[in-house]
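MODEL INPUT / OUTPUT PAIR
PAIR INDEX: 1
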Amino acid sequence: MPRILLTGFTPFGNDVINPSWEAVRLLHDQHIADHRVVAHLLPTAFEDSRRELEAAVREIEPSILLGVGQAGGRSRLSIERVAINVQDARLPDNTGAQPIDEAVIPGGPAAYFSTLPIKAMLAALQADGLPVEISNTAGTYVCNHVAYLMLHEAAKRKGMRAGFIHIPYLPEQAVRLPQAPSMARDDVVRALTVALRIAAGQVVDDRLGAGTLD
């Protein structure tokens, strides 16, 4: 059975949980569209996440890579369109590293675009009543770092596809942050299930307008 490598992150900053792992771990060993989901926890650290991801790809040999990360302050699920070859950390990672204006992979492409059907995923999630958007920036922190590495790994392997989704805070995080948007864990799990079903079942994307004016 083909496998999906679904990753989440450890907590970082002042948080004691990370919503990405809280949702991703609940999908471990589930079967979605004739694929088996393998959930994997990545450290919120630049170099450690690279080593963990590369080892997991070698071990699992997935056909689909989907990274999930926290984007506190966003009110919607954000399906990322692009990952850029830049590390520019506003705060240190969990090991204290703080790369500034450094390449994820020296000499690598300036950017990679998602190879998952992001517009079809968007339409399916909207049809399921979930707030979602196409995002054109995955930031320059560890999420973008992992998204770029996933797409780099997929570019080297025939038939492998990859992408990244950012999710809002969980309510238990937002309760201490006035006016911060959040999304319930069950809704995030439902959203990831829908997204993976579309990703596993569709290669050619839908043609839908979902850009921005700014």
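PAIR INDEX: 2
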Amino acid sequence: MLKILLADDHQLVRNGIKMFLESEKDFEVIAEAKTGSEAIQKNKELKPDLVLLDISMPDKNGLEAAPEILDAAHEPKVIMLSMYLDEQYINSCMEAGVNGYIHKGADQEELIDGVKKVMEGISFYSKDVRDVMVNNYITSLKKKKKQLAQPKISLTKRELEVVKLIMKGYTSNQIAEELFISNRTVDTHRANLMQKLDVKNSIELINKVTEENLLESD
């Protein structure tokens, strides 16, 4: 018999999930909790095989309670239940080490399937959650591809020399003296740099050079 602790601060939600779970002859909800702290305490006392945790609960929320529950000596599995389909919540749960993340919009079959897979040692994420993870991954790949497709900014040796002196706070006169060139030539290099880097002043220029690691090409 699979012993389950169900933690959610809404009685009606607990009733519905419990009914779904106990439709399986080998599943038993041995206790319920309505706060994170209560879930931690009942996990220690009753040693369930699986804890179903709602993310949003008073006292301690599911994310705060999960590490303490997972660290228990009897090594229970933990599945997070949530209405949230936000990448931040999903990533936070993965970092916390939970064994699964099931959206509360999932149906009974998906919930039961998730519980069985987790108890077999397989991480489980409901379809809505997987869709978010895949879409975010694709968006990230497209962003990286776009960044790689952008032409690399290339500065001449003289432009790099001028940039270094600008970053040291040199004035145009000081740069001209340092490089043995005319003030007009310095102004020309400044104008070319502003155009190449698409900036309007020296502060933006310095920030752009730093962000793009342009001095590494020297």
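PAIR 2 NOTE: The chain has a mean pLDDT of 91.
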